[in-house]
Specification:
With 345 residues, the chain is of the alpha/beta class. 29% of the residues lie in helices and 26% in strands. It folds into two domains: 2-147 and 311-344, Quinone Oxidoreductase, Chain A, domain 1; 151-287, Rossmann fold, CATH 3.40.50.
């Protein structure tokens, strides 16, 4: 089969012929229909510091966001059959640690991630433990089904507490931030703002449901948004940027007693005035890691099935699998125009 590989500790990826994976008793073999490129894949492609510290085995098949059809099931698998149209959570949980046993699988102590700790989905076939496989609705297009992993991040981050009737500010204009704007809108948020840097993505944010967008370097940004909220601050901050400046903006904009969901990954430790920004403001701070298995997936299913959440505007490019280099180039282009790129098989 064709597969996109990280062959060694250097920048770039290569497409090669490799053996179709053999499955274990608890796994299914899936023929991949669509696989989308994630920011994590860009880190691996660029071979930055994070990737150097995280990728330990070569060659590794990259990618972790996909949809496909089951072509084989292990003898210990139940509930799935050949022909099922599926996607998968990228987080492979052990099912045995304390967190897994008390319903916190998303923070499993022995977590393995597809495309990083084990071979991923940038291939014609992928083997996945059935315990993290999800049956898709047949009406869901493969490209939409392939981005449910990041969409799930947005659902969990946005709806870890209800947003109905609340003011929400999203910091970061990546795909997950844009998904969050749509989720907040269909979930009844009273006002939605997004802070970003790229014009094309700010436009997409408005299509997704943002009432207002702001450039992160805009002079007087904090006072502008505070004025919109009557000087009180926003009820909810979704920190998607992974930048210390973005976090500081979020903490400045959050009202006393508000909620901050932190999803963006910070490249280095940050300095926070915990006493004044968190304790004295009485805020609730959530660390968002992955998706809740499988509560988040059921919420996603219902939102997509309803027709009220349309994420098609975030998928800007669909390319043949063999043109993966073009897909990565589009996502690294500046100024940014591409948002989500899906490779079709």
């Amino acid at each position: 089969m064709r597969a996109i590989l990280k062959k060694g500790p250097h920048p770039g990826l290569e497409i090669s012929q490799v053996n179709i994976p053999s499955i274990k008793h608890d796994e299914v073999l899936i023929k991949v229909l669509a696989a989308s490129i994630c920011g994590t894949d860009l880190h691996i492609y660029k071979w930055n510091r994070w990737a150097q510290e995280r990728i330990k085995h070569f060659p590794t098949i990259t990618g972790h966001e996909f949809s496909g059809k089951i072509v084989e099931t292990g003898y210990g698998v139940s509930g799935f059959s050949v022909g099922d149209y599926v996607s998968s959570d990228s987080h492979i949980v052990c099912g045995e640690c304390l967190q897994c046993r008390i319903g916190q699988q998303h923070v499993c102590s022995n977590l393995k991630i597809m495309g990083i700790d084990r071979d991923g989905c940038f291939a014609e076939y992928v083997a996945v433990p059935s315990k993290v496989v999800w049956k898709n609705d047949d009406s869901l297009p493969p490209e939409i089904a392939s981005v449910q992993d990041p969409l799930g991040n947005a659902v969990y981050c946005t709806l870890v507490e209800p947003v109905t009737g609340k003011s929400v500010i999203i910091i970061g204009d990546g795909p997950i931030g844009l998904f969050s704007a749509g989720i907040a809108r269909v979930s009844g948020a009273g006002w939605i703002g997004l802070i970003g840097h790229h014009a094309s993505r700010m436009d997409a944010a408005k299509v997704m449901g943002a009432d207002a967008t702001f450039h992160g370097d805009e002079e007087g940004l904090i006072s502008t948004i505070m004025n919109i909220t009557g000087g009180v601050g926003v009820d909810v901050v979704l920190e998607m940027s992974g930048s210390e400046k973005g976090l500081e903006q979020g903490l400045s904009l959050l009202r006393k007693g508000g909620r901050l969901s932190a999803f963006g990954l910070f490249p280095q430790p940050v300095s926070i005035d915990i006493t004044n920004r968190i304790i004295f403001k009485g805020i609730t701070l959530y660390g968002i890691n992955g998706r809740i298995l499988f509560d988040t997936w059921y919420r996603m299913h219902n939102l997509l099935k309803s027709g009220r959440l349309d994420i098609s505007h975030v998928i800007t490019h669909k390319l043949p699998f063999d043109e993966f280099e073009k897909g990565f180039a589009l996502l690294m282009e500046r100024p940014k125009k591409a948002i989500k790129v899906v490779l079709m098989l």
